[in-house]
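User: Just a sanity check before I run the rest of the batch. Below are the structure tokens for the first item. I only need the designed sequence back.
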């Protein structure tokens, strides 16, 4: 490796620095700068909560378990579920309450979790796709219907469709195909494979009635 000769004003001789030494110094300086950026605390977060403000450390009931989580007052339930509780089955598609990929059940009613503030559901029962199966080997009947009919293509939207269908079937356990299509009409499929999805959900409804 070629050495760089840098003049030393205090010595008549020259000090040797290899190219690798220079690169190490640059990397070290960058790491220090990056650490300062990544671990800095915004002033708004460092301030104490003002009287009457939303409590940040709250307890949520998710899939039958109490979970303590630190949330911002403007934080959505979708963000909390995915990035703080690790429940990544809740997908974020449009993030503006249009596609339904983030659908979860709140007190047995389907909701777009991207449009629900986390702190507003602290006293409610939340169920995500991870909480539907009764055991590690026993899927929910609607999930089983999807598996039986292979009712998906890329499957990004499937969690939302399943949650919407489960919520709808709680109010109408024996729907016609048209009724079930209306019940999940708030969910969109990027692959536009609606016929296969609906067939799978109808099979799931059939399994649920037999359960």
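Assistant: Here's the designed sequence for the first item:
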């Amino acid at each position: 490796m070629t050495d760089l000769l840098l003049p030393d004003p205090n010595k008549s001789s020259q000090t040797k620095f290899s190219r690798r030494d220079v690169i190490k110094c640059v990397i070290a300086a960058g790491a220090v700068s990056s650490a300062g950026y990544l671990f800095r605390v915004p002033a708004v977060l460092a301030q104490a909560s003002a009287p009457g403000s939303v409590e940040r450390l709250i307890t949520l009931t998710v899939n039958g378990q109490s979970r303590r989580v630190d949330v911002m007052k403007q934080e959505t339930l979708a963000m909390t579920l995915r990035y703080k509780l690790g429940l990544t089955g809740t997908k974020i598609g449009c993030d503006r309450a249009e596609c339904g990929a983030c659908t979860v059940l709140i007190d047995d009613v389907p909701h777009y979790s991207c449009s629900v503030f986390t702190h507003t559901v602290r006293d409610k029962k939340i169920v995500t796709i991870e909480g539907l199966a009764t055991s590690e080997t026993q899927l929910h009947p609607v999930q089983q219907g999807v598996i039986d009919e292979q009712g998906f293509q890329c499957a990004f939207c499937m969690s939302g469709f399943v949650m919407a269908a489960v919520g709808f079937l709680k109010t109408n356990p024996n729907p016609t195909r048209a009724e079930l299509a209306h019940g999940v009409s708030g969910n969109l499929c990027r692959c536009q494979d609606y016929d296969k999805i609906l067939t799978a959900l109808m099979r799931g409804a059939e399994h649920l009635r037999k359960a």
